[in-house]
Amino acid sequence: MPTSPKEQRFLASLQKDILEFFELNDYRSYSINQIHKAFAIRDRKTKELYADLVQKLVIENRLIRQSDGNYRFDNESFQIEGRVDHVNARFAFVIPDDGSKDVWVATADLMNAKDGDRVRVQARRPSEKKKNDRPEGEVVEILERKSYEIVGVIQVTPHYSFLIPDSKKIYEDIYIPKTETLQANHLDKVIVEVTRWGTPGKKAEGRVIKILGKAGENETEMHSILAEFGLPYEFPEMVELAAEAIFTEITKEEIKKRKDLRKILSFTIDPKDAKDFDDAISYQKLANGNTEIGVHIADVSHYVKPGSILDQEAFRRATSVYLVDRVVPMLPEKLSNGLCSLRPNEDKLTFSTLLEFDPNGIIVKEWFGRTVIHSDRRFAYEEAQVLIENDGEEIDAYEPVIKDLNRIAKKLRDFRFKHGSVNFETVEVKFELDENGTPLAVFPRERKDAHKLIEEFMLMANKKVAEYVHELKKTEPRNTMVYRVHEAPDPEKLRVFSAFAKKFGYQVSTEPKQVSQSFNALMENVEGKAEEHVLQSLAVRTMSKARYSTDAVGHFGLAFPFYSHFTSPIRRYPDVMTHRLLQLYLDKGASPERAPLEIQCKHCSDREKLAADAERASVKYKQVEYMSLHEPQIFDGIITGVTEFGIFVEIGETSCEGLVRMVDLNDDYYDLDKENYRIIGKSNGRVFSFGDAVKVKVRDTNLAKRTIDLELIGMKSGGDRFGNNRIRRREGRPANVIPRGKDRRNNIGRKRR
């Protein structure tokens, strides 16, 4: 065995040479003697070394030893690197870094890798006999642990303790020695640092490094969600000090460098509970009869300089995180709620897009640059909506302005949809909380014209900035820019969705040029129908995920060939990057190298996903908490998923999703018809399908796991207990009756395994 890193590198190099030799000659096999001759090896010791290396390649599934004793290159095997997605206790998928097909890996073959770890996998291409085209493999090396810190509930015994992880994708508890608990109490929420990862037959071991508090308390649970996803909930002292040291006065010299728009009518429209206002709208009628509308964005890049401690922390976070009861900001409060918040009756430094519209809502002129504004008023969305809906006498001096802005916004929206923008209205959940964070009510967040008004002008500003930078240089390579990109749906996902929609009687085209119009027609046709939310939810899942990139591949969902994020630098780091690049080009600067910015884009996309996962976890926790406090009652729901272990149902009035477990459907034995998104009773022929309206009540809630178990009461349509939702069996063909009792339970057990 090698005794030094130098010897290890030497042997790795020899092994690579041997593998490359076989790969170049993959059409034939070789004996050990032929390998020795090919490498001109004559001495016994080196021959033994090469024989050992060949055997090691066989063990690693890189070479195949044939029945005749010869060796050949394994054409069916390959190695990939990627991240573990541990979907359940039995198996995981490894998502390759290169975007190729996911690799299925049994839990026993993970080498104790955990969800989110980067690993190297030895994989094998599926045989032609298999219907599933997904390769299978095993982890051969753990390249990088996602984190050494795990959050969960500690269970304390007299001699030792162990951690039950909060993450649904970590399936083993962690042993904690008696001396490493920080004196945490039984059932406290804690953060544990893993000191030794598990091995076959032996648990992972760790030590408590932070006690978050008593499980079930609001503050503890919100902090534990942030910790679970590796998100910070406080700023380092040095970052806070750097923010406090920022010079706050706007000097005359600074104003001279900017376009002074302080005399132009400006205002903000935000949620009524918003604390930071990073965008404002200005409005003025021009002498030529046109309307100039300004989109003014807090000039964060003026205060946060590249490479500063504030910039480093903002990049590390990359985004603000919006939990149910709080915002974890990207920037310290002095910036997010103070200097960079466009509060009314204060001069503020901004980066602006000025757009001149003709009476038909067509943009005829545009301008970009640094400005200073003075917001005249702060509107909540509800206040602006009252002015939009008012049909009587004018009730506010701003009413004509708001109504004209809404008129232009509707023209922009109609133009978008006409040219291929996809009209998805996803449902967001809003909570009413008491002073302790306990949910008193949960309801869907309503989007009205006031919300859409602001959205349209923000979309247009983002689009125009991206177009301006792209067109500054007409030849390749174009100027480097941070784009928000969104690829067209994966053809296979689209095909599956189209087939599913067809079962409801709807046509969804899979032709690339017709997809967006087809989706919009579907959304219009299902509006107000029972299957509306189901099809809308599935359609969203069919779409690719938007991300940041320096490649201008366009935004499919918006049907914009060039699109960037410019309008929220207080809460998104890519917007800060966009501001800096735009100013660089306005100053006639040279385009920076693309590669370093692409790495930053990838980091920002990853952090955005983490923040979204944490936000969903906080919503789910509050939904489960709300249902746990609710008096037992029967709810109307929609089946939103069917699996071999149960039916997922979303309750209409609360948007809470729960599971009706298969083992609790005790009137029959049910088979999963995966292709048709339904389960079918073997004896009675009852069918429960994706999209069916049902009646349920809460059976159990588990706050620690953030799950709701439901009991199926019946079909919403009435009839017998489950309505008339049955498959009629062909006459003369006996039903496959499954006996009740022990045999039936064993059958169910075998099926579930």
From TrEMBL:
It is an enzyme of class 3 (hydrolase). Residues 723-753 are annotated as: Disordered. The keyword Hydrolase applies. Keywords: Cytoplasm, Exonuclease, Hydrolase, Nuclease, RNA-binding. It is found in: Cytoplasm. It catalyses: Exonucleolytic cleavage in the 3'- to 5'-direction to yield nucleoside 5'-phosphates. Its EC number is 3.1.13.1. 3'-5' exoribonuclease that releases 5'-nucleoside monophosphates and is involved in maturation of structured RNAs. Belongs to the RNR ribonuclease family. RNase R subfamily. This is Ribonuclease R. It comes from Aquirufa aurantiipilula.
